[in-house]
Amino acid sequence: MANSRFEYVKQFEYSDNLLPNTWIVVRVDGRGFSKLCAKYNFEKPNDRRAIDLMNAAAKAVVTELPDITIAYGVSDEYSFVLHKTCTLFERRASKLITTIASTFTSYYVHLWSTYFPDTPLSPPLPSFDGRAVCYPSVQNLRDYMSHINNLYNTTFWSLIKLGGFDAKEAEKFLAGTFSADKNEILFSKFKINYNNEPEMYKKGSVVVRDYELVEPGSHNVAETIDNVAEPVKQSKTQDENDRKRRNKASVVVDHLDIIKDDFWDRRPWLLS
Ligand code: ATP
Ligand code: ATP
Ligand code: MG
Ligand code: MG
Ligand code: MG
Ligand code: MG
Ligand code: MG
Q: Is position 233 within any domain?
């Protein structure tokens, strides 16, 4: 196309490079999964097979894209975090979102039969939408990660299964409620203490590289937080070697508390 009279058509494309030096989160979310759950008889509110499948697809995405430092999922959504220094696809939003969403979808479909051996997929096939959001500080990123939880889901399905609500009524009932309200609804109506729910459902799933953990207290925690103190600088070659070793580390799925400092303190490379 170069040097032809058609070359100008490229100019209709717009640039969508995401803001430099910000943490990029690409979140994928299952399209119409309320219907898909019904079609394949997912157990409510948490079908273990479906969660394992989401986790397996996310693990494959993180393995294929070493630029992703951590991923976190609940329900039919997964958030993939790209380091603020990431330059993959020159940080073009559409390339990042479509690559992650389509890789995720491919693996979800590919791995379906492993988790649902007796239930073949049929059209309409599962698909995932995606979006990218930039968070300018570590605090913003951690707040974003902390806000995702399974409390809405648990309360919604308790209202339906134990409270006799239909889906519309439950949605309306929960509109505008805060976490404290949902905890209160669960306890007062159904005597459910959300804290006692199984870890996997309550905490969601984290996908990270299984890399050396730092013992708490062996480094200055403040160093990992933006705007507090400059981390002790090591040489570029040392940084590069560390990065290579991390990229080689195996990718694992776990159910850990990502709200507390401990998770991040033990993995300072995630945020530094
Ligand atoms: P949209 O296309 O707008 O995302 P949706 O129907 O997927 O529509 P969501 O808000 O994403 O709407 O809700 C996802 C639905 O899938 C919820 O009802 C949730 O309970 C259900 N779901 C997701 N994962 C599981 C699971 N592992 N077990 C049971 N239900 C699940
Ligand atoms: P849209 O996709 O059209 O922008 P939406 O209402 O589906 O609209 P999302 O951006 O997909 O909004 O969801 C925003 C966040 O709100 C998600 O991270 C999710 O944690 C929370 N959320 C929204 N709907 C639900 C739900 N039904 N159950 C649990 N969490 C929800
Ligand atoms: Mg949505
Ligand atoms: Mg939604
Ligand atoms: Mg969905
Ligand atoms: Mg969802
Ligand atoms: Mg091409």
A: yes
Whether residue 112 sits in one domain with residue 24: yes
User: Domain residues for 41?
Assistant: 18-148+211-270
Q: Which CATH number does the domain housing residue 62 bear?
A: 3.30.70.3000
Residue 78 shares a structural domain with residue 166? no
* CA separation for the pair 234, 238 (Å, rounded): 6
Q: What is the interface pTM, i.e. ipTM, of the complex?
A: 0.89
Phi, psi of 29 (to 5 degrees): -145, 135
Task: Supply the residue whose CA is at minimum distance from atom 5 of ligand 2.
Answer: 29
Q: Does residue 75 sit in the same domain as residue 189?
A: no
**What's the CA-to-centroid distance between 263 and ligand 4, angstroms?**
28
Cβ contact 179:151 at 8 Å: yes
Cα gap 44→57, rounded to integer Å: 21
Taking the model in full, what pTM does it have? 0.88
| CA separation for the pair 19, 149 (Å, rounded) | 27
- Reading the chain (272 residues) residue by residue, the pLDDT tens digits are 577 999 999 999 999 999 999 999 999 999 999 999 999 999 988 999 999 999 999 999 999 999 999 999 999 999 999 999 999 999 999 999 999 999 999 999 999 999 999 999 999 999 999 999 999 999 999 999 988 888 888 899 999 999 999 999 999 999 999 999 999 999 999 999 998 988 888 889 999 998 888 887 665 444 444 554 555 667 888 888 888 888 889 999 999 999 899 999 999 999 98
Q: Which residue from 27, 33, 148 has its CB within 8 A of the most atoms of ligand 1, so it is best to mutate?
A: 33
**Could you tell me which residues come within 8 angstroms of residue 249 by beta carbon, excluding any fewer than 6 positions away?**
209, 210, 211
79 is in an annotated binding site: no
- Ligand 1 pocket: which residues have CB below 6 Å? 29-34, 37, 42, 44-47, 50-51, 75-76, 153
Task: Note whether residue 262 is domain-resident.
Answer: yes
